[in-house]
Amino acid sequence: MSFFRVDLDKLAANFLSVKSKVGNAEVYCVVKSDGYGCGLSAVCGVLERTGSDGYVVANFDEGVALRDMGIRKPVVVLGSVSPCLLGEAIERDLTVSVFNYAYLARIIEKIPKGKRLKIWLKINSGFNRLGFDALDFAKEKVVGLLSSDKLDMAGIFSHLRGTGADVSTCQYRLFLHLVDGIRAHGVGLNAKLSLLNSGGIDCGLPTLDIVRTGAALYGLKGSKRENGVVGKNSVVAEFYARVLQINTIFSGESLGYDDSFVPQIDTRVAVLDVGYADGLPRRADKKGLFVILNGKRCPFVGSVCMNHSFVALPQGVYSVGDAEIFGKNLPVTLLANRLETIDYEILCRFGKTAERIYL
Question: How far is 93 from 89, CA to CA, in rounded Å?
């Protein structure tokens, strides 16, 4: 089967690179979505040994998985946690993100009597996805709920919408303004503050108490080519498919479903063990995608099947090894650009079904 090769030494080096840039701030590693497709257990094992101060996950199940691994450092769940799971969240010492009044009221009602739930309060400083804003904090009922003795406000955080210095500075000022407004009511006085993420590390802003790093850990650039710490970190993952068979398709014959490829000349085609179930788009040929085999570009031809795909072999390629989908010779950013997406999605997409090989 296709395989995802993850270099754990690069992961450790990327973490240390981030750590060296943030002064005395704590570094919480974002390991959501199965460690960006690289494998939650392996990723967290390395980060624990390298010195992560805490972790950020997408959902309750990922938080539980970290606790089951024996990790005892803070774990923040960004997504909504069902109120029926709050008792277990408290028992497992998970921190829950609280982002609007309706959710806040619901969880306070469901927290078991005599128990306290650790929360991070999410502020909307301009991303406009989730979070309380200035109007919310002006309402007495919101402040009243946040003062509940059922809550332990461990952190207050927000999310940068971009990496430009002007955008980040504007959000930074608004974030601190809103924090001051909350604390004026005697709420969150001891909560740690977190605004900067991987993309914000190079903006020159104060790091506050906690920096959350995701993309920089995995060497990803997102929608821009970063020149700072993110851009210098190495991509930790490569993706390969194995060649299962080589066929000669004669001129006028067809290949694949619905005669999706009919060569005009005799063409040697390699069948790969990767398909759309593994992350390839069904018409990879229409996107101009190719693999590297024996140092040569081999374009996809015909429709991608659920578990298989086809590439045309150029003249001179006879003895072949594994097909590089992205890696040393074919940057993940190139693949992302051709698919009109970002490298984050590529790692998450291709890391779901493939065998993982750790270096």
Answer: 6
